[in-house]
Amino acid sequence: MLQHVTIPRGPIDLAAHLHLPDDTERTDDTDGSVPLRTVVLCTPGGSVKEQIGAAYASRLAARGIAALVFDPAHQGQSGGEPRDLEDPYRRGEDISYAIDALGAMPRVDAQRVGVLGICAGGGYAVHTARTDHRIKAVGTVVPVNMGASFRSFQPGGPAAALDTLAEARTAESRMGEQTRVNWLPDTLEEAEAAGLTDIDTVQAVTYYRTGRGGNAHSTNRRLARGDSLLLGYDAFQLVDQLMTQPLQVVLAGRVGNTGSYDTGMRLWKLAPDPVDLMVIEDAGHYEMYDEPRYVDAAADRLARFYAAHL
Question: Does the reported pTM lie above 0.85?
Fold first, then answer.
């Protein structure tokens, strides 16, 4: 069962979907009177609630666990100006506001709330769980630390990139315009023309920019001035000291160029309470978004993890 939910976030609202299990799928009671354990999903950068988040939220609900997935502030159908801003700190705050909203929902047990982060959302979920201990269990699928990722591909280094961004923002302020850049090439033809023919980029474009996973509310654009925030961000800062919650890590076994395999392994070693590490052999990063055999396997493992720790 799917409910449309509005999450108050200060002066704006977040658009969300609450995926609820049918009472026949629940294992904790027979009449639906016992409040539900619930997982808040944090989606990849540039993704909206109807995409990867829905694939996992619906499967968790089918396994008896409620799941809330939302559009980040400034993106999708959520409020917030300027549009297309990817602010890692606000992404984390979004999760906490979602938990606030869950506390007012009668079917939800506010003492049994977990988080599931996918790709960039994995880093955001971990970063939030360090300091929001209302989160009782942390799950990640192909997690990416967006700060480390952005720093890694700057040709002249991150400090030089920050200098360039500073000059660009000054120019934007003078002109009264804001620059947006692509997350990905808009088409496979554009990717090929740019020489981006590796399997991960091809699968990313195929997912986000075709009928496979594309959505009208996902713009494939990122506000350029937000990149300075990403360059200075570290999703795993103080994880070893502050993130005491049990951790589940799910990784794709085919190591590509997204860095998620190495990132997940680093998180596993940093976390004070790592509970379960799952590597899905032969799966690629973007195949973990919607390939049924891989997503179903991950959802089975995650549902058992949340059932045990929420």
Answer: yes
Pairing of strands 180-182, 221-223: antiparallel
Q: How confident is the model at residue 223 (pLDDT cuts 50, 70, 90)?
A: very high
Mean of pLDDT over the chain:
96
- Distance from C-alpha of 125 to C-alpha of 9, rounded to nearest angstrom: 17
End-to-end CA distance of the chain: 21
Work out the pLDDT band at 34, boundaries 50, 70, 90: confident
Amino acid at 90: R
* Beta carbons of 9 and 97 less than 8 angstroms apart: yes
